[in-house]
Design a protein that fits this description.
single chain, alpha/beta, TIM Barrel, eight-stranded parallel barrel, two-stranded antiparallel sheet, 12 helices, 42% helix
């Protein structure tokens, strides 16, 4: 089990019908009021309205840009961390990304956590019964539209290295296969020292290695606790073999529905996501779904697997119901997390 306490961050409603300044602001302010550790954003340029996991009368084509959204939220909050889970390497030039993120960290008083990934694959995928074909379709269109060239793993590696160089070096230089530059004097530097936390998304062997060697944490989505625990230990072993400190952040991006009964929560989750799973049990196993007590038991399984950052996406994405579920989490789940750690007790599996 990770030595760091378990924290919960929340995906902002910056996509699909509910998205807009009012919803984003209200959810961000509620997250701060209810004690969430942070708020997060995804990173897409395009959406697939047919795959929208929400109803409402709004426009399911809406998707507010990730860093612009966090900049807006930084101005209306004071405490919550601002988290990207995750930015897609290749969507932005890494020098500009380093400038944007350093500015955001400085303007927010040192609240930024930057997750980076390669983006969804171009081919049909499935993970634990969750169908990701529409993500592959969107990814193909985005990469083609932006004329992203080169191996996406190399892009991600060099993005992480350039972020580190630009954030930490007085006058940064970099000589990679894709990007090269000399003596870049870019200020202000981030408030956080030595740098804002860097997280890596993705479940592949390459992503695990990338997290071990170039980042401060690993944050996959659509993982199971068992696979997460196994791959976390792989990540630690890779870092140790390379003489590097093990990552400190162990996160996952996961859908959540909380209600007064397990059946009601399952109905909420199934209303929008049931069609993506072969069975209702598969849906429950791949999400956090149930009463506050059930959610805490599920988090206990993840905690024992080493999780210390649960980045949750509340279902359904209706603003009033989202705020109500946030209230339940804030009043009954988040305050119980320290007790959850105490109940699980120490675990020394990753001490080396």
């Amino acid at each position: 089990m990770s030595e760091s306490p378990l924290r919960i961050s929340l995906r902002l409603p910056h996509s699909y019908a509910v998205a807009g300044p009012k919803a984003i602001r209200q959810v961000a302010e509620a997250a701060e009021a209810y004690g969430f550790y942070g708020v997060s954003v995804q990173d897409h340029i395009l959406v697939d309205p047919k795959a929208a996991p929400c109803g409402g009368d709004g426009d399911n084509r809406n998707l507010y840009e990730a860093l612009q959204t966090l900049g807006w939220v930084a101005g209306v909050t004071e405490r919550v961390k601002l988290i990207t889970t995750v930015l897609v390497a290749g969507f932005r030039h890494p020098v500009m990304l380093a400038k944007e993120t350093a500015s955001l960290d400085a303007l927010s008083g040192g609240r930024l956590m930057v997750g980076v990934g390669v983006g969804a694959g171009r081919t049909r995928q499935s993970a634990e019964g969750f169908k990701l074909a529409h993500h592959a379709t969107i990814a193909t269109r985005e990469f083609d539209a932006l004329n992203v060239m080169g191996h996406r793993g190399k892009l991600a590696d060099e993005n992480l290295q350039i972020l580190d160089a630009m954030w930490t070096q007085d006058s940064a230089s970099f000589h990679g296969e894709i990007y090269q530059f000399e003596d870049m004097d870019a200020y202000p530097k981030p408030v956080q020292r030595p740098r804002p936390p860097l997280l890596v998304g993705g479940r592949s062997e390459a992503a695990i290695r990338r997290a071990a060697l170039l980042a401060d944490g690993w944050c996959p989505s659509h993982e199971s606790p068992q696979h997460f625990a196994e791959n976390r230990l792989k990540c630690i072993a890779i870092a140790t073999a390379a003489g590097k400190p093990a990552p400190k952040w162990w996160g996952t991006n996961i859908d959540l529905a909380v209600a007064r009964t397990d059946e009601k929560a399952q109905d909420l989750m199934g209303r929008w996501f049931g069609k993506m799973f072969e069975t209702r049990q598969a849906m429950v196993d791949a999400t956090l779904t149930g009463t506050p007590e059930t959610i805490l038991r599920q988090l206990g399984v993840w905690r024992r697997a080493g999780l210390n950052l649960a980045d949750v996406k509340i279902t359904p994405r209706d603003l009033d119901e989202t705020l109500e579920q946030m209230r339940i989490l804030g009043e009954e789940v988040i305050p119980a997390l320290p007790g959850l750690d105490a109940e699980l007790g120490p675990d020394t599996r990753d001490s080396r």
